[in-house]
TrEMBL record:
Protein's cellular compartments: Cell membrane
Residues in ABC transporter domain copies: 11-245
InterPro entries registered for this protein in UniProt: AAA+_ATPase (IPR003593), ABC_transporter-like_ATP-bd (IPR003439), ABC_transporter-like_CS (IPR017871), ABC_transpr_CbiO/EcfA_su (IPR015856), ECF_ABC_transporter_ATP-bd (IPR050095), EcfA_1 (IPR030947), P-loop_NTPase (IPR027417)
Protein name stated in the entry: ABC transporter ATP-binding component
Coiled-coil portions: none
Length: 285
């Protein structure tokens, strides 16, 4: 009997161990991770748990020394770096370190020149992508005329301009004020709605992790848990052991439990909590 082969995930990380050359111990140990096409995975974990190292290995910014990684079926190695960089767009933490051009248009053109695109293709793609991130009015602006959130939206346009299948966000909103953070998250949510795009977002922000399809928790170079955001983030034992903030609903549950009010475990979202509280309130009137 013919057995049908399982379709390949977009990203397959298999048995990856990595030690920086000067380090005394590995930063990643036997890491396995898959990301499906179109899936949004939030990578969480304490400082130094290995999240950025894993992202850099997936993008080929660090050389793999043990294990394998494929993106879109292409092995991440020196030979395939160009092809890998067309599959992945990456946005980093610091808005100022990412801006290399004298103007917004120059900045995007600089990134595209590395991919040897024709001038007329570039001139079509740049305004198209600036419009998608809501920055079309700023095409001739200089970096110092932009807010942090606006710079990160330009970085997003730069990461997306070659229509990659995977967007990696390495704490892309952590240096922004609440308005900038909101702007960038709204842009990412909109991109996800309109593009066939998988996302790997590294974050310490519980509200950002809640937007993902799945949360992967790392600790000391290992993946220690993976599952639905509300389940992983709402687990009080995991939150205490691995020191992360719980979502507002989980915090409210814990506070109510201290007053002997037990909220059913299946209630995880704000909407479910509101409905449940309203019912309790009405039944007592
Ligand atoms: N260039 C380097 N050389 C040596 N060790 C490094 C280097 N970069 C990171 N490390 C070490 O690797 C481990 C994992 O670091 P990494 O930056 O991947 O963690 P992280 O989870 O992204 O942390 P954070 O949330 O603080 O960004 C840490 O112990 C760190 O000190």
């Amino acid at each position: 009997m013919l057995r049908r082969k399982k379709p390949m995930a977009l990203v397959e990380v298999k048995d990856v161990t990595y030690q920086y050359p000067e380090a005394v111990k590995p930063s990643l140990e036997q890491v396995n991770l898959t990301i499906e096409p179109g899936e949004w995975v939030a990578l969480i974990g304490q400082n130094g748990s290995g999240k950025s190292t894993l992202a850099r290995l997936i993008d080929g910014l660090l050389p793999l020394t043990s294990g394998t990684i494929t993106v879109g079926g292409i092995p991440v190695d020196e030979q395939h770096l160009n092809a890998i960089h067309q599959q992945i767009g990456m946005v980093f933490q610091n808005p100022d370190n990412q801006f290399v051009g004298a103007t917004v248009a120059d900045d995007l053109a600089f990134g595209l020149e590395n991919h040897l695109l024709d001038r007329d293709v570039m001139q079509r793609l740049i305004p198209q992508w600036l419009k998608k991130v809501g920055m079309q009015k700023f095409v001739a602006s200089q970096p110092e005329q932009l807010s942090g959130g606006q710079k990160q939206r330009v970085a997003l346009a730069g990461a997306m301009v070659l229509s990659p299948q995977l967007l990696i966000l390495d704490e892309a909103t952590s240096m922004l004020d609440p308005v900038g953070r909101q702007e960038v998250m709204a842009t990412i949510t909109e991109l996800r709605r309109t593009q066939a795009l998988a996302i790997l977002s590294i974050t310490h922000d519980v509200n950002e992790a809640l937007l993902a399809d799945r949360v992967v928790l790392m600790d000391q170079g290992k993946v220690v848990a993976s599952g639905q955001p509300q389940v992983i983030l709402g687990d009080p034992a995991l939150a205490t052991q691995y020191q992360f903030d719980q979502p507002p609903v989980a915090q409210l549950k814990a506070a109510l439990a201290m007053h002997q009010i037990q909220v059913p475990t299946q209630i995880t979202t704000q909407g479910e909590m509101q409905t449940w509280l309203r019912r309790q309130f009405n039944s007592k009137r």
